[in-house]
Amino acid sequence: MTSRTTHRPEPPMPMVPAGLPEIFDHTEDGWLRILAVNRPTVPLVEMRMAFPLSQEVLGHQAELAVLGESILGGTTSRDRGELASAIQRIGGHLSLIISKDRAVLSASALAEHFGELCALIVEVLEEPAYAKAVVAGDRRRVAEQIVLARSQPQVLVDEELDRRYYRGHPYRLGLPSQASVRRVSFEQLPALHSAVLERRGGVLVVVGDIEPERVLDEIGSLFGRWISSVTTPQVPVEPLTDFSHRPIELVNRSGAIQSNIRIGSPAPQRNEKEWPAAALANLAFGGLFSSRLVENLRERRGYTYSPHSSVEHLLAGSRMVIALEVGTEVTAPALAEVTYELARAALLGFDESEIEDARRYAIGSLALATATQSGLAAMLATLALDGLEPSYLEEYPKALKDCKPEDVAIAARRMLSPSATTTVILGDVDKIEGPLMALGPVSISKGPLTSTTPAKGKPASKATVKADGWRCS
């Protein structure tokens, strides 16, 4: 049973670049959604096959990390070198990216070789080899990458924020330990492959120099056997619910000459009515180089070079994250200024000029992000997994244009209130603890990847770092 509809964009409004091309929307075998777009800017075709990760898969970080490498380690018909050569011959690339809550198979090739690209993808999906020697080599490489990643303080503090912000939720997990990676067996990967890439709920996006109707027919023919073999439903990820305010957490990095500060707070999801206003609030607060955060901490105080804020959208919920690196001696003053700016925005909102700057940036950046074949394919895949229609790409700029200062003020009150934040600081505790205690309760962790010790006169934090999502390509 199949269904096919066509999304025809409305004429663009002022401040919005040319509207979307015609998007063909097709559902194959009742579950695989296929979006096809003719964008003949260059003679290429871009494909994104995206799957949400099920609840039970999220805990297998080590296996997922190795899977992301070994899936292209060969098939039952070709070894790794032969598979790479076949992809190169059609001017293409193929990779698997696994993040906190989704897996995305990304591919491209010269448009004339679209059929061959599809055949290679099907071969990888249906006939992965996961040979013992290949997996052993990939394990070693992944373990080395983890060592390099964990040598970066930015990675460590991001992990600590996730562990604390997502307390009790699978999103708190991330980079696996080297030991757990080394324990991954080649025999485990076929079952994980099925759990990640053979579950209903996925989407396939094709953008490029194509004839959409013909492409839909080719996909039905080339992917048909694989599509009909997928019968397991998705197990949705539990929604985020625990947003209680917590004390500032210090994570010790003895001898550090700078502190890494991360602050997280709940944000609306893309499908919520409040999201456009919240997007503007985030940009005006810390998402632009002309934002309040930059003007205060960089231009006026000189505490840091590039403080910024951003919003991360995940299937279980969204959050805003403020990130800055400051000298050890100004850690407490910098945090005090961030808290001041949060409170000022939450209580007083933003000026019309600030909102207008944010609006123009948001509309323009969306247009730039979707201007290329690869950008449009990635955006459509993301929106589809988030439960949004392609028309979002036209509706969102209109919603941004309609936002009034009072709408942004309401969103800021929800998202930027200091009482809703979770704060983690990685730095030399001996030097920053005293000043920070003047700003509120502080809990202290002994250091990344260690058990915690009590702060002076305070109970021990039970934080144990388990890192964030793993990105493989």
Topology, number of strands: 13
Strand order of the largest sheet: 1-2-3-7-4-6-5
What's the tally of helices? 17
Question: What is the alpha-carbon Rg in Å?
Answer: 24 Å
Name the structural class.
alpha+beta
The CATH homologous superfamily of the largest domain: Metalloenzyme, LuxS/M16 peptidase-like
CATH third-tier fold name of the largest domain:
Cytochrome Bc1 Complex, Chain A, domain 1
Low-confidence stretches: 1-14, 450-473
How much strand content do the residues show?
Answer: 15-25%
Architecture (CATH level 2) name of the largest domain: 2-Layer Sandwich
Helix content, binned percent: 40-55%
The average pLDDT value, as a whole number, equals 90
Characterise this structure:
This protein is an alpha+beta fold. The protein has two domains: 3-229, Metalloenzyme, LuxS/M16 peptidase-like (Cytochrome Bc1 Complex, Chain A, domain 1, 2-Layer Sandwich), CATH 3.30.830.10; 248-445, 2-Layer Sandwich (Cytochrome Bc1 Complex, Chain A, domain 1), CATH 3.30.830.10. Helices cover 42% and strands 19% of the residues. It is built from 17 helices and 13 strands. The chain has helices spanning 61-70, 80-89, 114-126, 132-149, 153-165, 178-182, 189-197, 212-222, 224-229, 275-287, 292-300, 331-348, 352-369, 373-385, 392-402, 405-415, 429-437, and strands at 3-7, 23-28, 32-38, 44-52, 93-98, 102-110, 203-208, 248-252, 258-267, 308-314, 317-327, 422-427, 442-445. The chain has a seven-stranded mixed sheet with strand order 1-2-3-7-4-6-5, with helices on both faces. A six-stranded mixed sheet has the order 10-11-9-12-8-13, with helices on both faces. A hairpin with a 3-residue loop joins strand 5 (93-98) and strand 6 (102-110). The chain is globular and about 65 Å long. 48% of the residues are buried. Mean pLDDT is 90; it is low at 1-14 and 450-473.
